[in-house]
């Protein structure tokens, strides 16, 4: 803390502030372009000028750039009182505007435009330059980001975010002197999972949201709210914007305790699943539309006399909805679960029980040694971006992974030996070795790095970690000491909360009850059991029952099989509470109502008896305590009760080849219905390391196909050779797992199939997936 003076006004500053930060804190409207709090100052735009007030006799006043000047106690500046500084800012803005097209009426940035605000702020009202403006070609950047090159003022914020902050390398500044453009070498979608943030940091309309363009609204006409991203367990703060009952865009909501300034592309674009053409918006019974209110239809459905019910909530539904469903199950004397897969349930609960010291994203950024187990990018993108910040500062990042990983590629590039490719069944052994090395006097390698770190962080991806590995990671954290932090990316936004409400082995119990006929009716809210890890088993079990009531906002496989469909609200259309991977309780607020009314999940409480309602209240109280956070605030963290877990068979080390997951950063149950994002889904392939293929006697090249056989099911896919796939493993997508009805770690038989180049033109395709949802030739769809 200290005090400096601007125009004789005292201005307090925080440690680390520059003079511009201090001025902004005091609401002094200093113009700036190139400065961004997350990206720092480069002093290139020359707009944030102030004049120094000499402190010694004989010293001359100087015009300085406040973004590059560290705030110090007693400093004195003239800003509004200066004769020179405002002129510098105005001249620079006028200079930038000589190139700018002045197309404000048709610019998507209108209403949110920093350039427009600053231009007005410095008083550059009228254009004097009557020369010809330079024009530049726009670049096609795929379905998510739109480029209007002429609007650029060369502040370099975009490239500083993309390259310096997010460590991307497929976008940069091209050209020289006053002919610099910010582009990819070739047209097409960005490689980075965080590319949408160049829209956020660009102070002009050079990069804008292409999905927003689909149905544009002036930004000041949008209905907005403080919401939480529902697409992974990080729980980033977002601000949905809607108009006329439809979602138009999602932007990051600044929050210093969680995501700070940014979100990932999944968080920005997956919510557009709410606008999918096939979204259920009509209550249907037996496929026939019904006009009665949704809750009345649900009451009728639950009252059928021959039904023996089971109830399913989910990790993508909020805390209260899951508690209500649990109590509804108690009223109906029915089994309840919030999980669709027994293996995922066990792994999630094991991880939640051990997440007592989970690091925040800031803890991860500040760590001086991080160990990552699993492919973090696909499961918790912003957690991975936090790891990149530590990597960027040269801090050691160690990684165990089994399939091709963006983060592992970065680690290898910067620090060659610190990402280890290994089959998941071996991870526990590797961690145990580390534990024993740590306990020795002379630890070296990874053990020494972890032992000597002041703030070590251990991160795991619960869904892909065998339970023994989750426990071994916790044991490692304990051996390192209390100063270590251990956290897990969980499978869904509210997995932490869902884990609190399901009994041990609840999903297996529900599934076997269906299979045995003990229950013949199922109410599912916000889950798609037919598309998950046990999809085939659920599909067979559900095909036998007479009553399948599904409440959801996506046209999932389970919705399509339902006897009763009740459309529900997407996250931006409702209030609720999620608990993120840290155990942080965060509430979200409704931004808008749809024109066609949908069931708000909070209305489900209307199905409960008064006793059950009281039980919901008391459980909520004991789970969350009295401090329910307001939307937009970083909520308190809870310490959960130790959860009973149950057991499930996991893959064991064998001599054969194991299936591992090759996911991608845009993948999640709801995200698959967001047309533009889903159009970037990589084509299916089977990843295998060249050396391992050779050891198996398979001669493969990029034109080869492999046939995979698991439990009598076969699938033939093009080969993707990658040294990043673990020996003893082949990596396939979730869709391939579903097609093969396989589980993580299952043993697979491989045979080389016909090579593409040898394939006769009329050869039928051996196996084919349904086309990617919303696939379109809109530029930038990656091969
Ligand atoms: S594109 Fe935007 S962020 Fe990038 S340099 Fe130009 S004005 Fe700055
Ligand atoms: S990291 Fe997760 S919570 Fe954050 S924006 Fe991305 S998907 Fe949403
Ligand atoms: S904001 Fe200070 S020079 Fe650009």
Beta-strand portion reads 15-25%
Which structural class is indicated by helix and strand composition? alpha/beta
Using only C-alpha atoms, the radius of gyration works out to 28 Å
Mean pLDDT equals 92
What distance lies between the first and last C-alpha atoms, to the nearest angstrom? 53 Å
Give the strand tally.
Answer: 33
Largest sheet, if any?
7 strands, mixed
Number of contiguous helices? 25
How does this model look, in words?
The chain is 28% helix and 19% strand. It has 783 residues and is α/β, with parallel strands linked by helices. The protein is globular, with a radius of gyration of 28 Å. It has 25 helices and 33 strands. Helix 2 packs across helix 3, helix 10 (342-353) crosses helix 18 (495-501) and helix 15 (424-439) runs parallel beside helix 17 (467-480). The strands form 8 sheets. It has a 7-stranded mixed sheet with strand order 15-14-25-24-23-16-17, sandwiched between helices. It starts with a strand and ends in a 30-residue tail after the last strand. The structure holds iron/sulfur cluster (2 copies) and FE2/S2 (inorganic) cluster. The site of one iron/sulfur cluster has 14 residues, from helix 7 and helix 13. The site of FE2/S2 (inorganic) cluster has 13 residues, from loops.
